[in-house]
Amino acid sequence: MLSTLLAVSDRIANQDAIALSPTVGWWMLAVALAIVLVFASYADLWRRWWMTKEDPRGIAVFRIVFGFFVLSNINGMWEYFEFLYTGEGIFPTAVAREVFAREQFAGFGDGVGDEPWGFFDAAAWWQFLKGPKYSLLFFWDSPAFFWAHLAAFEIAGLCLILGFRTRIAAFATWFLMNSILWRNALAWEGTELVYRTFLVYLVFARSGHAYSVDNWLRCRKLRKQGRLSERDGDGGGAGVAPSSAHPQGLEAIYRLIPSWPRKLIMLQLATIYLTTGMLKTGGVWMAGDSLYYAMNLDHFYRLPPQLLASYAGTTVLRAMTWAVKIGQTMFPLVIVGLVIRFALREKLAPLSSGRRWLARAAFATLVAASAGVAYTVWPVHYTGGIGAGTFVGAWVGLWGALWLVWRKLEHRPIVVSRIFGRALVKPVIIDRAWVARWFLGRRVWLVWHIAFHAHIFTLMSVGQFQTGMLSATFAFLEGREIASLLRDVGHRLGRWHVPFIPASVVRGEPVLPAEDPRLPSLQRNPTSLPLWAVLTGVAGVLGGVLVRVALAPKWDFRWIWVATVVFLAGVLWARARANRDAVAPVPGPSAARTPAPWSYGVVGRFVLGVMIAWHLTAVATWLMPEKDSLQAFRGPARNVFATWLTRTTTDQGWGMFAPNPPRSNVFMKVLVTDANGEVWDMRSDVYAEERKPIPWVWNDRIRKMNRRIIGGESGGGDWYRKWYARWQCRQWELDHDGVPAKKVELVKLSYKIPSPEQVAKHGYYIPEELLARTGTESVEYTEHCGSAVIGQLPNAIREREGLPPRPAGEIHPWVKHRRAAWERKHAPN
Amino acid sequence: MTLLAVRAIDVAIFGTLGGLWIGGAIFIVVLYRWIIRFERNNPPDDGASVIPTAPVTEAKDRNRAAVGLSAAVSR
User: What value of ipTM does the predicted structure carry?
Assistant: First the structure.
C-alpha cells in the first residue's frame, strides 16, 4: 500500500517531491533498520529457515521443468539467431562490443585500420574481466561459431534436465545462456529476466540429488558396494548410521540438501509479483481496463478477442483486472504463510523476554516509520482525497488490529461449529496454523498464480514467460509433497496400464523417505552468533551508511561493513572454539521431533548468512521505484549493489504493463528504396496479413523487436533504429545480387484501441479495418545506404557469395581509435 | 443483429476461455481433494523438520496402502 502510494506520481519531474527525498530517505532507513531488527529478534527462526537441509525432490522437479523451458526460451528465437547473435546480423562484432559492452572493451582493438585485434595489454584484459557481460560471442560470432555455441548450450541444458553432472551442467547452461543473451538485448523481454534470475539460484541448488542420472548412477554404485539403504532393507531407503552390521553405515537414496536456493526462488517469485503489482498504478489499471487493452494488442492475442472484449470489457474483464492487481500485490502473503507454518512446525523455543520486547519495538518502529514515509510524501502524491492524518491513523490502526487478531488466534482461536445454520461434523478451529494454511496458504495463492498465467498463456502468445513463472510453482512444493503427488498420479496411470510406471508405484507403496535427519554424519553444531553480536553488526552496517551520508569520505565507506563482518567472524570463531566439542544430541528413534540438520558447518553458515543478508538487501534496494521522492538516495544506494547484482545476473526490473498498458497498436513498417527509386514494403509486422497467423501458436520475437525499435513501448529503444536500418541496407545488398539499396525508412504505424465503453456501445471492431480507417503513419528514421557507417555488405561476404568486391572507398567502417584513447587514459603521468 | 455478424474465429475465443474456466474448475476440485487427502495422511505441523515419509521399520511391518490414492480408494 505504501509503495503503491509512492509509485503514484506524475511523470514530469516533481521538484517538491525531490526536495522531500532526503527526509524520505531517513524514514526508509528507519524502515530498513526496523525490518533488520525484527529478523534479529527472531534470529533462530531466520537461521533455521535459511540454513537447514531438506528433501531434494522439490527442487529436482523444478530443475527438470524449468530446465526444459530454459531451452525452449532460447530456441524460441530460432528464426532470428543469425540476425541477433552473429556478426552477419544487426550488430557486426565490433559494433556489438561498442554498443553493449563499451567499458569492458575499452582496451580492445577491432582489427580495423592500424589497430590490432585483441586486448592491448593486461590492464585491458582486467577491464574485460570486471564484467558483467561475459559473452563469448563478443569475440567469436561467425554463424559457424554461434551454432557450435548453441549446440553446447543445448547439450548443457539437456544434461541439466536429465541431471547428468548436474552442477556443472547447471553452471554451463547459465553461462552459455547469458553468453547468448548478453550479445544482443534487442529481443529481450521480461522473460529473459525471469530465466536469468531463477537459473542462477538453480545453479546453487543441489538439484541433482533426486530424479537424476547422477543419483541413479550413485545408487547403482552404492548398491553394488552394499552401502545403499533400500526400500525393503535396513533404513527403508533413508540411510542407516554406522553399526556392527554396517560399519560404514548405509546411505540414503535421497540425501538432504541445503534448502536456501529453493527458498530464494520462492522469494524471487514473490518479489516479481510484489514489484510489478506495486508499479501498476496508472489510471488504466485503477479503472480496471488493463486486461481489455492487453487482450486487444495485435502483437499478443492468439485469437481475435474483439467480440468477447466488447461483451466483457466493462464487466468481467474489469473484475479480472483488479484480481490481477490485487493478487500480484498480495502474493507475498504466501511467503508469510510459509514462514509461519515453518515456525510452527519447528516448534522453536519461545523468545526470551528481551527478544520479545525487541521484536515488539522493531514492529512498532516499522509501522511508525512507514507511516512517516507516507506522511512525508503525502503533499506530492496522489492521495485519493484522504488527509495525511487520516491515512496514518488508519495505517497504524490496521496494524494494531492485525496484532490483536494475531494474539487472539494464538490464545483464543475461533471455533466454527455451524455454517449457514448447519452444524459441522467436525468444528473448524481457526488458529494461526489455519490462517497460514488458508488465508496465507499456497492453496490460495498458487492457485491464483496458476490461474493468472493460464489465462495469459491461453489468450496471448508471449513466449516462455508464463512457462518460466509457472515452473516456479514447483519450488513451492516440498520434497515429500511432490513425491506423494507424483506417486499418486503414477499410481493412477499405472492402474490405467500406462507403461513405464515403476512397480512400487503401481502397487501403491508409500513414497520413499528422504535421508533420516537423525544420521550422525549430518551437521548439528549449534554454534551461532549471540544477539549482542548481531546487534553490533547491525550497528556497524548502520554506521557505514551514516558515514557515507554525513561525511561522504573519499575512501569506500563499505570498508566499515567489511570490518563489521570481520568482527562478527571473530566473535563466531571464538564461540566455535569454545563450543568445539559441543554438538546437539542426536534424537533417538522414538523422539517426537527431529530437527532438520544444518546445511553447512559454522563457517559455511556464517558465509551464507552474510551473503543472503547482502543479496536480499541488494534486490530490495535495486527495486525501489524510480520516483522523484526517492531521488536523493535511490541512485547512490543502487550503485552500492550494482556490481553484485549484475555479475550474478540478478539485476532486475518488473514493470510489465506498468504503470499502464499500451492503448494503441503500434507496428513498424520498413520501406526500402532500391537503386531504381522503387519503394518496397518489407511487410515486417502484423499489419501484413502473412505476419499474423490466427490462431497464433508460436511466439515471434519480431513483434517485441519492432516495438522496441519504433517506440511502441516505454522509450529507450531509439538508438536501435540506425543499426536496424543499416542491417536492412546490407541484407538488401545480399539478397539482390550485390546491388545496394538507396535508402531505408522505418515507419511507425499505429491506431488507437477503442475504449471498453465504445465497443460495449457500438459493437466490436475489426483491427485491419480500424487500422486502414484510423491508422497513422510517420517516418521515424531514414538511412541512406551509400553513406551509412556499416551500411554496406563487407567485401568478405560479397566474395563468399560470389559477388564482385566494392571499391574500398564505398565501404564505410566504424573506426573507433580505441588504442589511442586507451593509451591516453593509461599513460604514466 | 450483432450476433449474426459474428465470425467463427470470434466464437473460438469464447470456447477457449470457457474451456479454460471449466478445466480450471475441475483442476481446483481435484487439487483440493488431493490436498485434503494429503494433509489427512501427513499431518503438516507435527514438529518434524524433515519427515521420513515412511516410518523406518522392517518392510514386512509396513502398510502398503497407508498413503496416497490407494488409501482413498480403500476408504
Answer: 0.86
